[in-house]
Amino acid sequence: MKKTLSVLLTLTLALILALPVCGADFPAASGGVSEIQKYGNLVLDIAAEKLTGSGYAYGDVLAVTVDGKEYEAPFCTNYSDVNTGELVLRDNDGTLILAINMGDFASTNGVAVKNKAEDGTVTWTVSGGRELKDIAVSIAMKEQGGYRDQYLIHQLVRTDKRSDYASDQIFANFRAIPFGSLGKNALFRSSSPVNNEIGRAAYADAFAKENHIRTVLNLANSTEEIQGYFAEEGFNSPYYKSLYEAGGVKALGLGVDFTAADFKSGLADGLRFLAANEGPYLVHCNEGKDRAGFVSALLSCFMGAAYEQVVDDYMTTYENYYHLERGSEQYEAVKNSNIVSILSTITGAKAAELSKTDLSAAALAYMKNIGLTDAECAALRANLAKDYVTAEVPAEVPAETPATPAAPAEKPAETPAVPAEQPAAAPAGTYTVAPGDCLWTIARKAYGNGQKWEKIFEANRDEIRDPAMIQIGQVLTLPAA
Length: 481
Hints:
Blueprint: H1 2-18, E1 29-36, E2 42-47, H2 49-52, E3 61-66, E4 69-76, E5 87-92, E6 95-100, H3 105-108, E7 112-116, E8 122-126, E9 136-143, H4 148-154, H5 168-172, E10 175-176, E11 187-190, H6 201-210, E12 215-218, H7 223-231, H8 238-245, E13 249-251, H9 261-276, E14 281-284, H10 291-302, H11 307-322, H12 329-337, H13 339-347, H14 359-369, H15 374-385, E15 429-432, H16 439-447, H17 453-459, E16 475-478
Parallel strand pairs: 4-5, 11-14, 12-13, 12-14
Antiparallel strand pairs: 1-2, 1-9, 2-6, 3-4, 3-9, 5-6, 7-8, 10-11, 15-16
């Protein structure tokens, strides 16, 4: 028996010793500093290839030691791959640069003192009476892939040219939110119809008028900012202005820290505004991406949307703006970093638990936690559940408001109906409902556009009583797109 235990202990010890130690597969690199740039960035004399050739990859978190002090910095390709004020080890075409994005690494960390001459020339005096060659630097792996998702998100590039998008609606990021018990045409989301910084305001304003929007949550701007947009040369959002003057716009001016007390209190005021005023409703920030994404997710969950529907709607914005492909590494990075994190914030559930969480109950609890009463929640739910199919333009909106704003200069004469990679139409046929399906996802598969779920619903009214309740194995008729 003792002999057996001894053998087992020996084998266990051998296996433990054989396991790789964190970072052991990534040899450390050492060297010094060849230059301190004007803005305090340290240019290292360690070639980037020494890292990439040893298996290091962009998105790894590295331990960079300078004069015995260790710093954590993600390995990236641009300063802007990290947020303002954060550290980055940048591969600048083969040269490694240790920097603070929009900051001064050398001064902030006492590596050197900046000397600025009258002519603007900058020189540096290394601390401790030393020379540049005396600064010792080493680099080692801290966490493989620890910053990968954030790095991929920072690589996203979008344009603000209308001609780069398949339709006005996609360009404006304007769409209805049709999930759960939300009424028909009750809730919409979009980019800003009033702030034209990204060139979409006139388009979003036209869609707001077309859909008879009555009540707006402006998550991004203050009252003063909105009035400033009205006064700008070239302002071209007359319908939005008419709603504002009629008291139909709530200016919240929220930040992007969804856990901050002022975000929660401001959001509570906005939800009370929706509870006290009828729709159709429009929720927007500037791009209609982050703050609008949070509020859209919250209201969708509150009204009974499925987890997949909420995620799909959020990611539609990134497909619209960045043409992300579903299932790609960037798509998954955005999903996990953004909407999954948002749903965890709303529900308190871990990412792996979200698909099994009662999202409606969790959203209600969140609303009550930020200050809404039971009566306010009930009024909000009742308003969101109404159908606004026959909604008319509010009487206070001037009749002469143009149906369509003057197009921005870059708007092309003709626009393709759908993106080139999506089918323009799908042949009539049938579809058998599979696990995880909803009308939204079926419409995406059939027509390349989840917004066409209503076509399927209308064609199958005899079989579907509630569009949020379809059965696995159910055979649905797919009408021509």
